[in-house]
Amino acid sequence: MAANHSKQQTTTMLAAGSVCVGVVVLALKFGAWYVTGSVALYSDALESLVNVAAGVVLFIAIWYGGRPADSNHPYGHDKAEYFSVVLEGVFIVLAALAIIREAYLDLRLPVTIAQPWFGLGIALFASVLNGVWGYVLVREGGRRRSPALTADGVHLYTDVATTAGVIVGLVLAVATGWTVLDPILAIIVAVNILWAGWRVIRVSIGGLMDEAVPPEMLDHIRGVIADNAHGALEAHDIRTRQAGRRTFIEFHLVVPGTMPVSQSHAICDRIERGLRSAVPDSSITIHVEPEDKAKHTGVVVV
Q1: Which of 33, 116, 123, 150 is an S-S bond match for 42, by CB 3.0 to 4.6 Å?
Q2: Over the stretch 76-99, which tens digit does the pLDDT of each residue have?
Q3: Can you give the residue range of the structural domain that contains 28?
Q4: Alpha carbon distance 129, 25 (integer Å)
Q5: Residue 185 belongs to a domain with what CATH number?
Q6: How far apart, in whole angstroms, are the C-alpha atoms of residue 290 and residue 293?
Q7: Per the structure, how many domains does the chain have?
Q8: CA of residue 236 relative to chain centroid, distance
């Protein structure tokens, strides 16, 4: 219990760190836009505004999602993370629409880029900071099985790629004098953001719809059950679903009809220990049945 509490505290601190980093990067990018007047850099700054808003939602979702189960939520609050991912996707779409509007206005009346090298230097520094923090979030999100942390880190990677493209494009615009490249770059950024938003929302939809674990994980679960179920006959109707970092596993375990309850209970305990070791943060439900309920499918225990 203490280890889980410590893990939750660390995850919440990472979410708070995302907000702090996002505010710093936002200030830097708006500074880059202010000194240059570039609509492409403005679009890049708007994406960072989305990052800050998403970071705040992420922090609230992880804090709330880490609360223990209660009478109203007996399965816990883990799915709160998916709502933060949905909101992040909505923020991304709104930012993309705002960028397209600004790019359209700039196409009609192009603006000369002022102090380009100073502004691009600021944007480059902000991008490096984003990349480092994105790496931290993706790494820790994988370790802690947090879809919200991982989604936020992937979004920052997208932001880094966007900024890199903007910098290269603006260098070309300044070098060639083709100011029309600035709004064109902004539109490309908007399209890229929309694609990233769809991917983020797709992840959350799978979680909210109780999507099963990936096939390779299911095979691993079946193997763990087989390795720890000696004394039983078979395990069938294995079902899984994911909610945030928690994995729910349930199945029917067939035992000999004459087996004492205490012995079948000991088998269940052994299987649960194996599954919790192999699948951290798992919640396991086993329904014990006599041998006449066997379906001769699923995991046959040898």
Answers
A1: 33
A2: 666 666 676 677 677 777 777 777
A3: 2-208
A4: 7
A5: 1.20.1510.10
A6: 6
A7: 2
A8: 31
Q: Which two tokens stand for residue 100?
A: 């397209």
The answer to whether residues 104 and 236 belong to one domain is no
Q: C-alpha distances in angstroms, 225 versus 36, 164, 265, 271, 296? A: 62, 48, 14, 6, 15
Say whether pTM exceeds 0.70: no
Domain shared by 92 and 235, yes or no: no
One-letter identity of residue 178: W
Distance, C-alpha 41 to centroid of its chain: 26
Residue labelled with tokens 């802690």: 144
Q: How many C-alpha atoms does 54 have within 13 Å on its Cβ side? A: 34
**Residue 230 has what DSSP assignment?**
B
For the chain, the distance separating the N- and C-terminal CA atoms, rounded to the nearest angstrom, is: 35
Q: How many C-beta atoms surround the C-beta of residue 214 within 10 A? A: 11
Q: Tell me how many degrees the CA angle 122-125-126 measures, rounded to the nearest 5.
A: 85
Pair (203, 129) in one structural domain: yes
- 119 in Cβ contact with 36 (< 8 Å): yes
**β-strand pairing of 282-290 with 246-255:** parallel
Q: At residue 10, what is the residue type?
A: T
